[in-house]
TrEMBL record:
Species of origin: Desulfobaculum xiamenense
Keyword ATP-binding applies: no
EC number: 1.8.98.1
Listed name of the protein: Heterodisulfide reductase subunit B
Keywords: Oxidoreductase
Coiled coil: none
Superkingdom classification of source: Bacteria
Length: 308
């Protein structure tokens, strides 16, 4: 199965570990991804406040390239913001004749037009519906053996367009984590906003959100996400969030955890690039102390200490 790959700006710069682990994991799964030639920024969250046509024309340009030059194959955007912006073109522009005409007029300056024939997909959609948990499990050579992991989705892959998951109770990561041998941490924060760009404009509000998410992850070895902005907020502002009641917890991209379970090394998955990943956590990934839980839920070491 072949897809067009839209890395976007974050995966090309601040979230390179997501890009590297994504490419490696997709190759291991036997999926063919071709990067869109000459792709450009989707506009992120800034274009909408500047110009309405630009807000749609920027992501539409990338879809137009796929439609014209790549046979209109499905586009996969791992970044949640990129996914949403590309998806908005199909939901808001296609079928809206006046807006479509204005967008195509802008695209015409580059010799392009978009007819709405490209399907926009998210990584989780592909893993859940094209690959499946069984195929993922078959690639596992280093099972996580019950590692408790909190699945964090964020907002943009769930709202306002619930394409492949329930925005109120997202679960699309759970079959993947189960296939890796992990135990899904029970919580209700998977779709809670991390504060997003409020971290730049109303930091106190965003820090409170991050603190609440981190606190709710108590008992999990790590939080896994598929959103670069969520990953940055949860990781880079942990010290401030801990002072507001949060806790320190490693934040990984889902594809990093998949790569580890597939037998790829920590260096190959660029764990050294994760600010929240400590030497202690990296050691635990090797020793897997969570697999020695007794029926009461305490580790063997904790039980022994309690008896003394």
């Amino acid at each position: 199965m072949k897809y067009a790959y839209y890395p976007g700006c974050s995966l090309s710069e601040s979230a390179k570990e997501f890009d590297v682990s994504f490419r490696a994991v997709m190759e291991r799964l036997g999926l063919a991804f071709e990067e869109i030639p000459d792709w450009t920024c989707c506009g992120a969250s800034a274009a909408e406040s500047v110009d309405a046509v630009m807000n749609h024309a920027l992501p539409a340009r990338n879809l137009a390239l796929v439609e014209r030059d790549m046979g209109g194959v499905d586009v996969v955007a791992p970044c949640s913001a990129c996914y949403l912006n590309l998806l908005k073109v199909n939901r808001e522009v296609v079928g809206n004749r006046p807006l479509s005409a204005r967008v195509n007029e802008a695209l015409g300056a580059a010799g392009l037009s978009y007819g709405g024939q490209v399907r926009v997909r998210h990584l989780l959609d592909v893993l859940l519906n094209d690959v499946g948990a069984q195929a993922i499990a078959e690639r596992v050579t280093n099972p996580l053996e019950g590692m408790p992991v909190a699945a964090y989705y964020g907002c943009q892959i769930l709202r306002p367009y619930p394409v492949f998951d329930d925005p109120n109770r997202p679960t699309s990561m759970e079959p993947v984590l189960g296939a890796l041998g992990a135990t899904v941490h029970e919580w209700d924060m998977g779709g809670r906003c991390c504060g997003a760009s409020l971290m730049a404009t109303h930091r106190d509000v965003a820090i409170e959100s991050v603190a609440a998410i981190l606190a709710a992850a108590a008992g999990a070895e790590a939080i896994v996400t598929v959103c670069p902005l969520c990953q940055m907020n949860l990781e880079a502002y942990q010290a401030q969030a801990v002072r507001r009641g949060g806790r320190e917890v490693p934040i990984l991209y889902l594809t990093q955890l998949m790569g580890l379970a597939f037998g790829m090394g920590q260096e190959a998955m660029m764990l050294q690039g994760n600010l929240s990943v400590t030497g202690h956590f990296r050691s635990r990934l090797e020793t897997k102390p969570w697999r020695s839980k007794d029926a009461a839920g305490d580790s063997v070491e904790d039980s022994a200490a309690a008896e003394q």
